[in-house]
Amino acid sequence: MNVAGTGMPSHLWFVVSNITGADRVVIVNVSSDDEGLGDLDTLVAADHPWLTHTSSYIRTDRALLATVASLTHGLAAQPAALIPQAPALPATLVKLQTALANSQHTKRGIKRVLVEQPTYDRPLKILRELGAQIVGLSCDEEGLDPEALEQALREGEKPAFLYLIPTFQNPSGRTLSEERRLRIVDLAREHDLLVLEDDPYGLVRFEGEPLPSLLELSGGETAYSSSFSKTIAPGLRVGWFVLPEDLAREIELTATSTYITPVLLGQATVHEFVSRGHFEPNLERVRELIGQRRDAMLAALERELPNVRTTRPEGGYFLWAELDGVDAGDLLARAEQAGVTFVKGTDFGGPADSLRLAYSFVSVDEIAEGVGRLAAALPAAV
Ligand SMILES: Cc1ncc(COP(=O)(O)O)c(C=O)c1O
């Protein structure tokens, strides 16, 4: 049973007929000579440049750009700097690579980057492979502690950037408060610090009010990325950047040398999905279904493990648990024998007695069963 391990969305989130319906239209548009839509000139004239243009990020569909801008509430996007792209992870990779390459070497020849501690494990792996010196900044229930950021900025050499997941963070599920967002934007301005804002979960909110992005609060100075992986389907591999102008060009160059072109058929599918009015109802459905699973996990934890401290996310896929001294690696071995899994906190730079539980993939019943098995695998003292 893959309870609480994978951060994948469940197949239940996707209204397959809407996606395949949209896909079919794209394919019909390409192949149907009957309707005069088969030749490339007509396709371009019909404003389908993504189908014919395989290597440029510039000639992308303006309607899709407008949709993306409207989805990211309050986004003051400059169309030229808003680029439909590969999804968040490849986008993050090229952002990390470019920002690191652009930055100055420190005196010791190592580039220093700031991240939340804990943070998403893949950027940590990428940054290690790129040879960066990773500085983890402490977080609490309101997200990244601005005091820790200020201290790191004052004490060390100038960092290449701060990588931040402000909303429904992976792995903790925490959200950076508005007050802290404002403080971090101020600090970034004061210290000329580039902020890479990774926001794949922001729209998957089950309760509470949306907060402004750092991009918005900074008036467009933040390098922002998001994707449709959590709101339509991850397999489409479509996401977007909103970037300061000077970084946009650099990132396009890195992207072109990394994965050549975004997934154009995926972009076209997203466009059809959105323009047929499926996006908003689908998002409502996703929010409701995942919200039910978050509730089920919190209820099961309260019932089975009342002494384990957890976060209470208002959206996203994950919550974070602290085991009061029990080693999560040891627990994982026992839990897997009992048929339940999770990701240990150390994978994200967290303490040895922490772990990430994902409620995105499994059913409400499986969550109850999985948390019961987890509780049985724990030493009696917890
Ligand atoms: C913080 C964060 N960024 C990026 C991604 C990758 O998303 P995408 O499917 O858009 O590449 C994930 C996904 O799991 C994530 O948690």
What structural class should be given to the helix and strand makeup? alpha/beta
Largest sheet: 8 strands, mixed
Strand tally is 12
Instruction: Name the CATH architecture of the largest domain.
Output: 3-Layer(aba) Sandwich
Mean pLDDT: 79
Percent of residues in β-strands = 5-15%
Q: Largest beta sheet: what is the strand line-up?
A: 1-8-7-6-5-2-3-4
Measured as a percent range, the helix fraction is 40-55%
Distance between the termini: 23 Å
Name of the level-1 CATH class of the largest domain: Alpha Beta
- The CATH topology of the largest domain turns out to be Aspartate Aminotransferase, domain 2
Provide the number of structural domains.
Answer: 2
Summary, kept brief:
The chain is α/β, with parallel strands linked by helices and 382 residues long.
Key structural traits:
single chain, 382 residues, alpha/beta, Aspartate Aminotransferase, domain 2, Aspartate Aminotransferase, domain 1, 2 domains, four-stranded antiparallel sheet, 12 strands, 13% strand, globular, binds pyridoxal-5'-phosphate
Verbal overview:
The model is unreliable at 23-60 and 73-82 (pLDDT under 50). Helix 5 packs parallel to helix 6 (121-129) and helix 5 crosses helix 10. The longest helix is centred in the last third of the chain and has 26 residues, at 279-304. The chain contains 14 helices and 12 strands. The protein has helices at 16-31, 40-45, 49-52, 62-71, 88-102, 121-129, 146-155, 178-190, 214-217, 245-259, 264-275, 279-304, 328-337, 364-377; strands spanning 82-85, 112-117, 133-140, 143-144, 161-164, 195-198, 223-227, 239-242, 309-310, 318-322, 343-344, 354-358. It folds into 2 domains: 61-263, Aspartate Aminotransferase, domain 2, CATH 3.40.640; 280-377, Alpha-Beta Complex (Aspartate Aminotransferase, domain 1), CATH 3.90.1150. By secondary structure, it is an alpha/beta fold. The chain has an 8-stranded mixed beta sheet with strand order 1-8-7-6-5-2-3-4, sandwiched between helices. Strands 9-10-12-11 form a 4-stranded antiparallel beta sheet, covered by helices on one side. The structure holds pyridoxal-5'-phosphate. Pyridoxal-5'-phosphate is lined by residues 7, 87-89, 92, 120, 165, 170, 198, 200, 227, 229, 234, 239.
